[in-house]
Write a structure and sequence with these properties.
By secondary structure, this protein is mainly alpha-helical. The chain has 18 helices and no strands. Helices cover about 80% and strands about 0% of the residues. Helix 6 crosses helix 16. InterPro entries: H+-coupled_symporters (IPR051084), MFS (IPR011701), MFS_dom (IPR020846), MFS_trans_sf (IPR036259).
């Protein structure tokens, strides 16, 4: 494996495993609810199953604090090794965990534990992996970090495709018995591969040099004290990307509920959109290395804001599977131009010695706030305004927030050619 692709594979495999598991859990939620959270009321069962996902998101900032700080103290690779061990353990539990009918109340307890482990691990994965990628080559930070977004999209497509195939070829009884576990079993194959690749890689020279000069003794406290503005900007930059990801996942459900499209719409459109994003994200990262991240992020944020309402109007004018496929493809074409350079911009806001902590906390707080707030706000807007365009209004508002954050953040970013270690006590 070449000098470029080995670090990419090492940093991306954990991210892919995380999203493979979360996507599979979400798509197979009704089956998991029946087997692990049985109730006389189907809605209560589903609520418990998806409440477990919410708990996994809540625990992510804790993982960010612990593993992000560990990445800044011990190094990127030790933190990445720790996160993938935890992630594989969580996936192992989900893959082989017997249902409620077999082990009783231990089943839901173990499932909650597995999802908490998954969330904790994911909380530290992004900061460590992104830091490792951008520190490989100062001139190709955008391209290297863009594989975070590409790996998320790939994992989403893989999980969706696996569940579409198993649900199509198996009987309902077979799918409920074991078919829904197939994506998690595939994840178990990815885990050891990622562990092996990571085990045989060394620390980045940039981190080793910076640590020798300015190692943080208390990464969390010092980062929170010295880099609050940078963290706030990161969260603002992330806002529209997180909301857009939710809307891409929500659109099939929106089409099924609002316009009565067939349930197969969900699988097909997610696969189409994710495939497009896998191809474009690395290209967008490369372009950001050439023309600058601020310029590309601004163009993409404006594109998201301008296209939001027209895309919903297009679907409203002719609600059909074909229109849905066109809308989802367009969303897949637009989003990666923002997510491609996103990780690199966030990473460049922090000095090397605080990058793991700053990235992990910012990313996970942003994901919790806007990942958790978007479904609530969209539901409220739909009920209050009484128009199917309501989700687009929220998207436009967050695009404006992210646009302002991108422009302000440009003041705090040092060009790659002038990057230097920064004192942990430097204020912003």
């Amino acid at each position: 494996m070449s000098g470029t692709w080995r670090p990419v594979a090492a940093a991306s495999v954990g991210n892919a495993l995380e999203w493979l598991s979360f996507t599979a859990y979400t798509l197979a939620g009704s089956t998991i609810a029946e087997q692990f959270f049985p109730s006389e009321d189907e809605k209560s069962s589903l609520l418990l199953a998806f409440g477990t996902v919410a708990l996994a998101y809540v625990i992510r900032p804790v993982g960010a604090l612990v593993l992000g700080a560990y990445a800044d103290r011990a190094g990127r690779m030790p933190a990445l090794m720790a996160s993938i061990r935890i992630m594989v353990l969580a996936t192992l539990i989900i893959t082989f965990l017997p249902g409620y009918d077999t082990i009783g109340v231990a089943a839901p307890i173990a499932m909650v534990l597995a999802m908490l482990l998954q969330g904790f691990s994911a909380g530290g994965e992004f900061g460590s992996a992104t830091g490792y990628l951008v520190e490989q080559n100062a001139d190709r930070r955008g391209f290297m970090a863009s594989w975070q977004g590409a790996s998320q999209a790939f994992a989403t497509v893989l999980a969706t495709l696996l569940l579409a195939i198993t649900s199509g070829v198996l009987t309902d009884a077979q799918f409920d018995a074991w078919g829904w576990r197939v994506p998690f079993a595939v994840g178990l194959l990815l885990g050891p591969v990622g562990y092996y690749i990571r085990k045989n890689l060394s620390e980045t020279p940039e981190f080793s040099q910076a640590r020798g000069a300015h190692q943080l003794r208390q990464p969390v406290a010092q980062t929170l004290r010295s880099h609050k503005t940078r963290m706030a900007l990161c969260i603002g930059i992330l806002a529209v990307s997180t909301a857009y990801s939710y809307l891409i996942t929500y659109m099939p459900t929106y089409a099924i509920r609002q316009y009565g499209l067939p349930a197969s719409t969900s699988f097909t459109t997610v696969i189409i959109t994710g495939s497009v994003m896998v191809l474009i994200a690395p290209l967008a990262g490369h372009v950001s290395d050439v023309i600058g991240r601020t310029r590309l992020l601004v163009i993409a944020a404006v594109g998201i804001a301008v296209s939001g309402i027209p895309l919903f109007l297009l679907f409203q004018a002719a609600p059909s599977f074909t229109t849905m496929a066109v809308v989802m493809t367009l969303m897949g074409l637009i989003k990666p131009w923002y997510t491609g350079p996103l990780a690199a911009r966030m990473a460049e806001l922090f000095p090397t010695t605080a990058r793991g902590t700053g990235l992990s906390i910012s990313y996970n707080v942003g994901a919790v706030i806007f990942g958790g707030l978007t479904p609530v706000v969209v539901t409220w807007l739909l009920a209050t305004l009484g128009t199917p365009l309501a989700p687009a209004f929220w998207l436009v508002a967050l695009a404006a927030l992210s646009l302002v954050s991108v422009l302000v953040s440009n003041r705090y970013v040092r060009p790659a050619s002038r990057i230097r270690p920064v004192s942990p006590h430097e204020k912003v």
